[in-house]
Design a protein that fits this description.
alpha/beta, globular, GMP Synthetase, Chain A, domain 3
Amino acid sequence: MPTIKLASDEIRYITLFETLTGAQIRDCIIDDDNSRIIFIVNPGYAGIAIGKNGINIKRIKKVIGKNIEIVEYADSIEQFIKNALYPARVKLVKVSTLPDNKKTVSITVDPVDKGFAIGKDGKNIQKIKLILKRYFDISNVMVA
């Protein structure tokens, strides 16, 4: 697993989020291309981070002015992907190493959920790529 370094903005967002929600935040990824912040929460804290009827997300979105997404951390790449794509039903995750030692992931989802897994303009795939690059040094992601 690559070493994760947090910038001052990320630390500030983590502190704000933990203060307002009480959830334990593991990481924060700022995605300026999609005007969103992805918070990686410790296992079991997704519900607390979201809040009843999404109240915590709405409150933080109002303060920060960006969309907020929550992903629950997992040690295994398969479970991490399932958490990031929830509620899409992930059937299979296959990790391959290319001859140049770059890793690629192929994700098979239920055909009904393929559109959701990819997301509008591919934003869910971009989220998966950001997370997998940061935690598992994966260079490419494909959804089938």
